[in-house]
Amino acid sequence: MTKPRLLDLYCGAGLAAQGYIDAGFDVTGIDIEPQPRFPGPFIQMDVLKLDLRFIRSFDAIHASPPCQAHTALRSAPGAKAHPSLISPTRELLRAAGVPYVIENVPGAPLLEPVVLCGSMFGLGADGHQLRRHRLFEASFALPKLRCAHRQPVIGIYGGHVRNRAAKHGGRGTADFPGANKKGLALDAMGLTDRELTMDEISQGIPPAFTKWLGEQLLAHLAGRAAA
Ligand SMILES: C[S@@+](CC[C@H](N)C(=O)[O-])C[C@H]1O[C@@H](n2cnc3c(N)ncnc32)[C@H](O)[C@@H]1O
User: What is the pLDDT of residue 168?
Assistant: First the structure.
């Protein structure tokens, strides 16, 4: 049987792609920057210049437009202005008419998003839970999961691995003690067998999130085929 084909837009090093591969998709990545560690076929180009016929040759789409326009850091002194690519990406995907998922950070203007968090998937390292909330808008219904924050928190942001107390709502800025920062970050994100830079890890989505989304997509595609 041939596998369903998923197009991963704004793919980065392919952490999101890894979860869809684990769910059973063949994944092709698109990014404006070279991505030598992407785990599959890769095309370097601007997503907003993609041809609709090319997009329609896939069974499903995942898109992770850059989040800089929507993070708290956007209003930091001296911060560069970043255009939001969410609306143009949604327009492109709606025009293509292929089932899609768009991912971004809390605060981004996604429509009726579902939140996923490391605590829903047992992610973490060294007795710390991975707190990594990400929003997912989908063109089909997604079930809602609940966060289960209990232990102290490990957070991976901007190349840092932060050690944060659960009693402070997972906030605080202490760097995680110990030398193997990257090993901890890979472990917490569920990426123990990938070679990645700290920047690639910081930008990515844990594959456990997209494996779950991939399973929802497969069920949706099967329902459509049956109908
Ligand atoms: C948040 S990162 C993606 C991380 C990825 N989803 C993962 O889990 O590994 C966003 C990516 O969008 C890419 N990007 C920014 N503007 C783009 C554009 N117009 N077309 C294609 N890629 C773009 C950046 O190079 C960056 O790799």
Answer: 53
Phi, psi (rounded to 5 degrees) for 98: -100, 140
Which parts of the chain register pLDDT below 70? Answer: 69, 72-81, 164-174, 177-179
Alpha carbon of 29 to ligand 1 centroid (Å): 10
Buried/exposed code over 100-123 (b: 16+ C-beta within 10 A; e: otherwise): bbbbbbeebebeebbebbbbebeb
Where do the domains of the chain lie? 5-226
Q: Which fold has domain 5-226?
A: Rossmann fold (3.40.50)
Is 86's C-beta closer than 6 angstroms to any atom of ligand 1?
no
Q: What is the pLDDT of residue 166?
A: 52
Give me the pLDDT at residue 163, please: 76
| 48 pocket-lining for ligand 1 (C-beta < 6 Å) | yes
CB 14, CB 6: distance < 8 Å: no
Mutate to test the pocket of ligand 1, among 10, 103, 211 (most ligand atoms within 8 A of CB): 10
Cβ neighbour number for residue 188 with a 10 Å cutoff: 26
| Residue 104: predicted pLDDT | 97
Q: What pLDDT does residue 167 have?
A: 54
pTM, full prediction: 0.93
Query: Which backbone phi and psi does 63 adopt, to 5 degrees?
Result: -135, 130
